[in-house]
Design goal:
With about 300 residues, the chain is an alpha/beta fold. It contains 11 helices and 12 strands. It folds into 2 domains: about 160 residues, 3-Layer(aba) Sandwich (D-Maltodextrin-Binding Protein, domain 2); about 100 residues, Periplasmic binding protein-like II (D-Maltodextrin-Binding Protein, domain 2), CATH 3.40.190. The C terminus is likely disordered. About 40% of the residues lie in helices and about 20% in strands. β6, α6 and β7 form a beta-alpha-beta unit. The strands form 4 sheets. Strands 5, 8, 9, 10 and 12 form a 5-stranded mixed sheet that branches. A 3-stranded antiparallel sheet has the order 3-11-4. This is Solute-binding protein family 3/N-terminal domain-containing protein. It comes from Paraglaciecola arctica BSs20135.
C-alpha cells in the first residue's frame, strides 16, 4: 500500500511542477538599472495574460537577469534557459522561419520612424539634409546584433556598432560618434534619463529616417499554446481599447515631442522582411495624411 501511495504523491507533485512551469512567463529584463526600455513590454505581456485568465488560468511573470543584450536572447531561447520565454524583436524572415512569431505589432508600427540623439555641438549640422546621401559621412552608432545596424549598413550608411547600450550615449557625449537613431516612441524616455549623466546630449531637430520595422513577441516553436494565449489576449485588449490606452500612456508624449511632420523624412529599405504578410498593419497607428504623402515622395 505504501509504494502505490508514494508513486501517487510523486505523480501529483510532478503535475504541479509542470503546471507551475506552464504558468510562469519570462520577459527580457533591462540591460542596466537605468534601462527603462522593457517596462512597456512587461506591461503589454501582463495585459495580454490578464485578458485571458478566465480561459487559461493564473500566471507569474519573471524578468531575465540584468545585462543580457539582443545577441544572447536567441541563444537562451534555443537552450530553454527560461520558462515560456517571450521577448520583443524586430522581425526578419529568418525569425519567421525558425521561431513562433506573434504577428501583432506591440509598438503599433511607429518604431520604424527614427530620430537621432546627437552632441549639442553638432545640433545644426543636419538641417539642410534632404536625402540619405547627406548623412552618409556621419558616424551612426547602433548596437551589435540589432536589426537596425544591418538595415543602415545595407542602405550605405556609416555605422559604428557598439556592444553595450549604455556605452553608446557615452560615445556620443565624447563626440566619437555623430548620431544615434532611436524610435520616436523611445526617445523621450531615454533622453530624460541619459541627459542627467550626459548634459550635452540633445535630440537632433531636423531629420528622421523611416524603414519598415514591425516588432512582435517571439517564443520557441513548440510553445504554441502559450503563444496562442498571448495573441488572443493582445487582440482582446486591442478591441476593448485597453491596449491602445497603454500604448498612449507610454508613447504619446514622445511622438508629439519629436514633431515628425516638421522633419525631412528619409526613406530606407529593409531587405530582411520579404515574406511577411501585411495583415498585422490593421493594428498600426494611423499616421497623419500629410506624413504619409511626404514619406511616399521621398
Amino acid at each position: 500500500m505504501i509504494k502505490p501511495l508514494i508513486i501517487s504523491i510523486l505523480y501529483i507533485a510532478a503535475i504541479n511542477v509542470s503546471m507551475a512551469k506552464s504558468n510562469l512567463f519570462t520577459y527580457k529584463g533591462p540591460e542596466s538599472k537605468e534601462d527603462q526600455r522593457f517596462i512597456y513590454m512587461q506591461k503589454v505581456l501582463e495585459l495580454a495574460l490578464n485578458k485571458t485568465k478566465s480561459e487559461y488560468g493564473d500566471f507569474e511573470l519573471q524578468a531575465t537577469t540584468e545585462g543580457i543584450n539582443q545577441g544572447r536572447l536567441l541563444l537562451q531561447m534555443d537552450k530553454n534557459v527560461y520558462s515560456n520565454y517571450f521577448f520583443r524583436v524586430s522581425v526578419t524572415d529568418e525569425l519567421l522561419e525558425n521561431y513562433h512569431v506573434i504577428k501583432f505589432p506591440i509598438d503599433r508600427g511607429i518604431s520604424g520612424y527614427r530620430v537621432a540623439f546627437t552632441n549639442s555641438q553638432r545640433k545644426k549640422n543636419y538641417c539642410l539634409i534632404k536625402n540619405k546621401e547627406g548623412i552618409s559621412k556621419a558616424i551612426i552608432a547602433q548596437g551589435i546584433g540589432w536589426l537596425d545596424t544591418d538595415i543602415l549598413k545595407h542602405n550605405g550608411l556609416n555605422v559604428y556598432a557598439i556592444a553595450n547600450y549604455k556605452s553608446i550615449f557615452e560615445m556620443l557625449s565624447l563626440d566619437r560618434v555623430d548620431l544615434f537613431f532611436r524610435g520616436i516612441n523611445e526617445i523621450k524616455a531615454e533622453y530624460e534619463i541619459e541627459r542627467v549623466t550626459y548634459p550635452n546630449l540633445v535630440i537632433e531637430p531636423c531629420i528622421a529616417l523611416y524603414y519598415p520595422l514591425p516588432r512582435f513577441f517571439v517564443t520557441d516553436k513548440q510553445n504554441i499554446n502559450n503563444a496562442n494565449r498571448i495573441e488572443k489576449g493582445l487582440k482582446i485588449a486591442f478591441e476593448d481599447g485597453s491596449f491602445i490606452m497603454l500604448w498612449e500612456e507610454y508613447f504619446r508624449d514622445s511622438i508629439e515631442l519629436v514633431n515628425l511632420q516638421s522633419r525631412t523624412l528619409i526613406k530606407l529599405d529593409n531587405p530582411y522582411i520579404q515574406n511577411l504578410d501585411s495583415n498585422f498593419e490593421k493594428y498600426n497607428y494611423p499616421l497623419p495624411e500629410k506624413l504619409v504623402v511626404l514619406s511616399l515622395l521621398r
